Amino acid sequence: MRKVAVTAAVVSAAAVFSAAVLVVRHQLKRSGKWVQVLSIVKEFEEQCGAPTEKLKQISDAMEVEMHAGLASEGASKLKMLISYVDKLPTGDEKGLFYALDLGGTNFRALRLHLGGKGKGVVNIESEEVSIPPHLMTSSSNELFDFIATSLAKFISSEPEEFHPPPGRQRELGFTFSFPVSQTSIASGTLVKWTKGFSIEDVVGEDVVGALTKSMEKIGLDMRVAALVNDTVGTLAKARFSDQDVIAGVILGTGTNAAYVERAHAIPKCQGHLPKSGEMVINMEWGNFRSSYLPLTEYDHALDLEGLNPGEQMFEKLISGMYLGDIVRRALLKMAEEADFFGDTVPPKLRIPFILRTPDMSAMHHDTSSDLKVVGNKLRDILEIHNTSLKVRKIVVELCDIVAIRGARLAAAGILGILKKIGRDTVKDGEKQRSVIALDGGLFEHYTKFRTCLESTLKELLGDDTAETIGIEHSNDGSGIGAALLASSHSHYLGMEES
């Protein structure tokens, strides 16, 4: 009996010892995995690094590409498109002008009442219209007939005192946010549809001509005075109230920039130079690429797996469409190689773009002591439950790395524009003010991104020059800016008010 008891005790002790060994091994394994997690984060941070010197190299490269793109078509990754906007609003515009903003499954009609010198915008009215899904893939006639009819209905609410006198047409600014090869201030051929539209009969045709035909069909007496890109609209809207505005930048789902260039600095601009001596250039800067850009394995993978490999690399590093997915890719690597979320990889973490930049922003701005917002986002979006504070802190750190890189690169791009037009230094005895108008949800809502962009620009310029550079939020340039450009390119400028 005693022998059996002793044997049982030995077996029991062995079991306890084995269990203890397993615990220790597990802890060592977890400890080793945590070291691996920290190693992945550190490597990622180093690869995303954008120190001052590197940013200056990027801005220099941007300036070189700008020169090349202005010299001839296809000479640069930057298209440097001539917008044909050679007159920006002065703030003195007067009268009633319309805008049509078509950029997706909805379009907006706007009516602006401009009061003239010193009075600015007296009144704005707008109406949003949903485009029936079948019209997005039907014919150009059907789509533009629907838009013209909706526009006519909106115009019918115009106050009687604003009806144009006999012989004078209403004037419209048309924001068309699809790839267009512009041929004049009020004409441009559609290169291709995006955003779910697929109407082949208008590809290669003048979109203003298609809209005009539909307006004439229903007797709507209105002319398109300006065909506008949303970035150019952002610049125009800001210029209306501040004559020191020299560039417009969109930082939203995508990114782009437009700026005011001296006409004689555009070799590919054939024909007569505009009287103003200036021309707004739509850079299409999202396609900028340079060997100095701090790319990681996650950026390369995102690029290769996307719809446009090798294109829009600058956009893929700094715009709202992509930032959240870069964070997701880093989390996935840590889950696969270091059991970051436990022994199994959360299935949702493998879904591209499931983690959106607004969610990333919410986690990045979490100020609660237990990072509750981070925990809730991981649970609700990725179905990752019961995360520790240690894990949540790493998630915030990844958000910080990605956002800081994006903001610093955006600042380098802006410096490139300032260099190109000679506004990156202060000349003796001269303190010329230069304002950059920014718009887009990323700039407007992602506070840490915006703050980092502004501080980086100051760091790159130095205190003296930074004092002469302003950043201004220009909201709704795609709508209001289009109407303002219709006013500055009106057929009736200089005519006596009737």
From TrEMBL:
<dbReference type="InterPro" id="IPR001312">
    <property type="entry name" value="Hexokinase"/>
</dbReference>
<keyword id="KW-0067">ATP-binding</keyword>
<keyword id="KW-0324">Glycolysis</keyword>
<dbReference type="Pfam" id="PF03727">
    <property type="entry name" value="Hexokinase_2"/>
</dbReference>
<dbReference type="GO" id="GO:0008865">
    <property type="term" value="F:fructokinase activity"/>
</dbReference>
<dbReference type="GO" id="GO:0005829">
    <property type="term" value="C:cytosol"/>
</dbReference>
<comment type="pathway">
    <text>Carbohydrate degradation; glycolysis; D-glyceraldehyde 3-phosphate and glycerone phosphate from D-glucose: step 1/4.</text>
</comment>
<protein>
    <recommendedName>
        <fullName>Phosphotransferase</fullName>
        <ecNumber>2.7.1.-</ecNumber>
    </recommendedName>
</protein>
<dbReference type="InterPro" id="IPR043129">
    <property type="entry name" value="ATPase_NBD"/>
</dbReference>
<keyword id="KW-0547">Nucleotide-binding</keyword>
<dbReference type="GO" id="GO:0001678">
    <property type="term" value="P:intracellular glucose homeostasis"/>
</dbReference>
<keyword id="KW-0472">Membrane</keyword>
<feature type="domain" description="Hexokinase N-terminal">
    <location>
        <begin position="41"/>
        <end position="239"/>
    </location>
</feature>
<keyword id="KW-0418">Kinase</keyword>
<dbReference type="GO" id="GO:0006096">
    <property type="term" value="P:glycolytic process"/>
</dbReference>
<dbReference type="GO" id="GO:0005524">
    <property type="term" value="F:ATP binding"/>
</dbReference>
<dbReference type="Pfam" id="PF00349">
    <property type="entry name" value="Hexokinase_1"/>
</dbReference>
<keyword id="KW-0808">Transferase</keyword>
<feature type="domain" description="Hexokinase C-terminal">
    <location>
        <begin position="247"/>
        <end position="487"/>
    </location>
</feature>
<dbReference type="GO" id="GO:0006006">
    <property type="term" value="P:glucose metabolic process"/>
</dbReference>
<dbReference type="GO" id="GO:0004340">
    <property type="term" value="F:glucokinase activity"/>
</dbReference>
<dbReference type="InterPro" id="IPR022673">
    <property type="entry name" value="Hexokinase_C"/>
</dbReference>
<dbReference type="GO" id="GO:0005741">
    <property type="term" value="C:mitochondrial outer membrane"/>
</dbReference>
<dbReference type="InterPro" id="IPR022672">
    <property type="entry name" value="Hexokinase_N"/>
</dbReference>
<keyword id="KW-1000">Mitochondrion outer membrane</keyword>
<dbReference type="GO" id="GO:0005536">
    <property type="term" value="F:D-glucose binding"/>
</dbReference>
<comment type="similarity">
    <text>Belongs to the hexokinase family.</text>
</comment>
<keyword id="KW-0496">Mitochondrion</keyword>
<comment type="pathway">
    <text>Carbohydrate metabolism; hexose metabolism.</text>
</comment>
